[in-house]
Each structure stands twice: as structure tokens, then as C-alpha cells.
Amino acid sequence: MKVVVWLAEGTWQACVDAAAEVAPPAASITLLHVTDPALASDVSDAYAGMVGRGSGGRDPGLAVDAAAARAAEAMLAAAAARLDRPSSPALRRGRLEREVVSAAEGADLLVVARDGPVTRLGPRSLNPPTRFVVDHAPCAVLLVWPTPPPPVDTIPPPPPHKAAPPHHP
Amino acid sequence: MGERLSLSGAPPPGEPVAPAVPWRSVSTVWAVLLLAVVLAFAVVRPRGLPEAAAAVPAAAIAVGGGLVPWAAARDEMIMLGPTVGFLAAILALAHLADAWGVFGYAGALAARASRGSPTRLLTVVFGIAAAVTAVLSLDATVVLLTPVVFATAAAAGVRARPQVYACTHLANAGSLLLPVANLTNLLAFGATGLTFLGFAGMMALPWLAVLAVEYAVFRWFFAGDLATPARPAPVAPSPAPRFALVVLALTLAGFAAAEPMGVAPAWVAAGGAVALAVPLSVRAVGRRLRTAREIALSTNPLFCFFVFGLGVVVLALRRNGLDDLIAALTPSSADFLGLLAVAALAALLANIVNNVPATLVLVPVVAHTPGLVLAALIGVNIGPNLTYVGSLATLLWRRILHARDEPPSTSAFLRLGAVSVPACLLAAVVALWVALKLSTVL
């Protein structure tokens, strides 16, 4: 059984814990982290927009990119330690949702955490990239709550039943 | 009689000036071309050459070709001198503050104050970015603070997008408060006729209004990222770089205190930089030469030359028709609609040609009414967040560059600017209008 665990800031611990719980001992576990280079590139762009400053190695986008790479390595290491069983790390760069779906190709299970507002049940508990992953995953998906799930009564009451449409024979 | 070849085609002395249109249009074309080349070069930067490599020769051509008399060019550079001197000093001051660990300390402070909450981290970053921009200017926020904020968010297990974008946005929009916060403010400060504290007093309300609008837009725009639960990680205590913080506070007080005595802010900033540099150099045994070289390079001398060159090239265009055109487009009174029109025009110009040339073009035309100068500053400072790379030309060029390696995967920045810039402009103009009504100075 191949299990892919998508690690993201703030929620990865719940994914690792869930994988440790459900993956059989013989399963091969891949710990996946995706960095979207758009953030560092936007910072570079913002710097480029300040006319006349030259480049001279002062581009803060490069510093953000390097810090992002370090943070990703650190998260993978922390996740491997938390899992405490054999796993293989996978680092990818690109659009989050596309990279995760592509990394899940050929897997049997993808572990994903909700990452939107977690105070009530509902579709908003998935941010758009996570929603894309759940909708497009090419395998089974285990969708976990990063915090204890909110109670069922956080769902708004259903709208009143509409009157049945008039019957036309 | 041989005709003297001149770029400007200016009529020889003694001849009637009346049919001015033909010669003026030729020199206008030349002036437009020169400015276009300077700006295009600054965007494309062929072979990584500095922007000054085009701006300085272009200025020489403008003077040599008769588009600008040498005396006028010299006066322009004398006028720009204190501004450029301040620019060099504040860049060095920010570099030295970083070497003293001020930005690292700010990051640690933000991590501690946020207690693991993405929203609280955003709030604290707003405060820090606004303060850094106001005191050390926008370069410090973009170049030195942004990477620290990213690292702080990552270490706290927080998705860094809102906080990082906050830094880049506030570097522009948050630079309204003090004359030293932005090169644009420095270029226009003289035309306002205000004192250092008078400027801060007039711009305090617009600055606060912009911060409030940006904060509301960020909370709404990044609601998803901010709602992701984070697990607070223990933050290692970091000692405050007290000496550097005291020097920065004294420098800030010095800007206001030295002005009535006729001391330019450049000298105050240079004094602060020297105060920070000396202990560092003394301690850097064996690396003194390298430390001194780093400090010298941090003043970015080529940038300073670029500002001089650009000033002369813009002057050439102003003297050859642009002043008349801009004067026809700008309202002459500082009523609410006048302020709004000038701010909008300034924002538009900043997005077409970048905000420094936009300021050089616009401020002399509205200098007759200080309220309009402040409105122009609102436009040129907030406007760049719309295309976020400073101008449309830069945006298009960066897109072409990126198309080769990795496609730009998000338009988040553009969408954010489309929401925040119009709202900030309006809020700031309303606030400025109120400040002008309440003011006894203007």
C-alpha cells in the first residue's frame, strides 16, 4: 500500500498522526511538501518595482526562497521524527494543488488536512487549493481535522421545505 | 548661413518665439525618447547593467543637445543633492541596523506577540512594517524586513502569504507618514513648505486611514490563510539590540529637532549611521576593510547617480511641453474633488512610468498648492500596489521573463492591489481633506 501524506504549515501534525494510525505496517509512506515559488517571485517583483535599485544580490525574493527551502526541509525532518517509522521525503515546487494531485498518482491513499476556518462544519473548512486536491485526487483521500472537529450543530438549519410544485396532469 | 544643429531646435536669440509649435514638438519628441530609453533600460536592465548606465548618459545628451540649459540642469542637481544624500545615508543606516540585529529582533518580537495566531501575527507585522517604513524608508521594509517576516511565520508554523504581502504593500502605502519614508516624499517635501513635524501632522490621518483600509482588506482577502490553525512553537528569547534601537530613536528625534536649526535630515541620518558603524568596525578585527566596504556599498551609489540622471532627463521633458500638458490635466484648487483628481492622476502616472519619475513630473506642476502636493504623494505612494512591480512596463517585462522559466502561478498580488488601491486612495484623500480642514498650517 502506497500512502502519500501532504504536509502543510499548521496542519501537518494531524496528517502525520492520521497516517501513523491508518497505514498498515508494510505500507510505504511518502511525506510530501510543496513550495509554491510564486510568493518568493512576487517579492522579487515588488523589489524590481522599486525603480533604480539595481540588483546587486539584494533581491529579497532570493532570501525568501532560501528561507522557504530551509523551512520545507525542517518540516519534513520534524514530520519524519513524529511519524517514527520508515518513510521517504518528497519535496516539490509549483502550484500546490497541481503538484499534490500529481504526486498522488499511483498512490492508494492521500492524507490531507482541512485548512480553512475550523470553527464550524462545512465547505469553507477547505481552502481553495485543498478543495482542488480533494476534488481531483486520483486515489482514496483521508481528510482529517487539524483540531478536534466542531459539533454537528454548527451546520446552519436547513431552509424550510418549498411547497410542492403544482401538479399538471 | 549655416544652421546650427540642435536637438532642441530652439530659436536663435532675437528671433520671435511666436510660432513655437514646430521646434517645440521636435524637442518634445527627443525628450520623450530620452525618458523612454532611461525607463526601458531600468526595466530591462540588459546584461545586469545598473540603471545609471542609461540615465547618466541620457542626462548628458539632454544638456549637450540643448534640451536643458546647463544652468537649469545644475540647479536641478543642486536641488536633488540633499535628497540623494539622505537616500545614501538612510540605506546605510538600515543596513547597519540589520547588522546590529534590529530586524531579527523585530521578527522574534512578532513571533512572541503573535502567540501562534496567524491573525495576531498579521496585526503585529502591520505595526512593525508601518514603523520600519516610516523611519527607515520603504527599501528597508522590502529588502530587510520581508525575509525576516517570512522566516518568522515559517518558524511559527503559520502560512506566510498574508504577512509577506503585508510587508510589500505597506512599504508603499505605509510610507505616507514621514518625509523620510519614501524617495517620493523627499522629492516633494520642499514643495509642501511644511516642517518635518508639520508634514507628519498633515499626513498622520491619511496614513492611519490607509493602514486601517489595508488591514481590513488583508483580513478579508486572506481569511482562508489566516483561519488555518497553527500550533504555537516555543520562541527562543532574543535580547534586544538596545544600542541600535536607541540610536534609531535618537535619529528619528533628530530629524524633527535638527530641521529648525537648518540641518538637513541627510546629516542626521549620516550621524546615526556613523554611530552604528563605529562600534561594528571596532569589533570587526581583521575584517575592518570588508566591513567598511559593505557599508559603503550599502549606500548604493549607482542608485544615487540614477536619481540625478533621471532628474535631469525629466526636467528636459518638463521644459519641452510636459509641464503644460500636466498643468492642463491637474485641477488648481485643493477642494475634495481637486485632491481626488490629483491623487488619481498621480496613481495612474505611477503605474505607467513608475512613481519616482511620476513625482518629478507632477510635483512642480501642483507646487502652487501644498494640499495638492500631498494628494499627489498619496497617489504616487499608494498607486504602485496596483501593478505591484511599480509600473505596467515592468509588469509586462517580468511576465515575459518568467514565461521562460516558471510560469507565474498566481495573480493574488494583482487581485489584492485591485481591491486595496482604490479603497486606500479614497480613504486617504478623505482623510487628507479632513486634515486640511482642521489644519491651521495649510
UniProtKB/TrEMBL annotation, chain A:
<protein>
    <recommendedName>
        <fullName>Nucleotide-binding universal stress protein, UspA family</fullName>
    </recommendedName>
</protein>
UniProtKB/TrEMBL annotation, chain B:
<feature type="transmembrane region" description="Helical">
    <location>
        <begin position="51"/>
        <end position="72"/>
    </location>
</feature>
<feature type="transmembrane region" description="Helical">
    <location>
        <begin position="297"/>
        <end position="316"/>
    </location>
</feature>
<feature type="transmembrane region" description="Helical">
    <location>
        <begin position="84"/>
        <end position="107"/>
    </location>
</feature>
<protein>
    <submittedName>
        <fullName>Arsenical pump membrane protein</fullName>
    </submittedName>
</protein>
<keyword id="KW-0812">Transmembrane</keyword>
<feature type="transmembrane region" description="Helical">
    <location>
        <begin position="413"/>
        <end position="436"/>
    </location>
</feature>
<keyword id="KW-0059">Arsenical resistance</keyword>
<dbReference type="InterPro" id="IPR000802">
    <property type="entry name" value="Arsenical_pump_ArsB"/>
</dbReference>
<feature type="transmembrane region" description="Helical">
    <location>
        <begin position="336"/>
        <end position="353"/>
    </location>
</feature>
<feature type="transmembrane region" description="Helical">
    <location>
        <begin position="20"/>
        <end position="44"/>
    </location>
</feature>
<keyword id="KW-1003">Cell membrane</keyword>
<feature type="transmembrane region" description="Helical">
    <location>
        <begin position="239"/>
        <end position="258"/>
    </location>
</feature>
<feature type="transmembrane region" description="Helical">
    <location>
        <begin position="360"/>
        <end position="379"/>
    </location>
</feature>
<feature type="transmembrane region" description="Helical">
    <location>
        <begin position="119"/>
        <end position="136"/>
    </location>
</feature>
<feature type="transmembrane region" description="Helical">
    <location>
        <begin position="264"/>
        <end position="285"/>
    </location>
</feature>
<dbReference type="GO" id="GO:0015105">
    <property type="term" value="F:arsenite transmembrane transporter activity"/>
</dbReference>
<feature type="transmembrane region" description="Helical">
    <location>
        <begin position="196"/>
        <end position="218"/>
    </location>
</feature>
<comment type="similarity">
    <text>Belongs to the ArsB family.</text>
</comment>
<dbReference type="Pfam" id="PF02040">
    <property type="entry name" value="ArsB"/>
</dbReference>
<keyword id="KW-0472">Membrane</keyword>
<keyword id="KW-1133">Transmembrane helix</keyword>
<dbReference type="GO" id="GO:0005886">
    <property type="term" value="C:plasma membrane"/>
</dbReference>
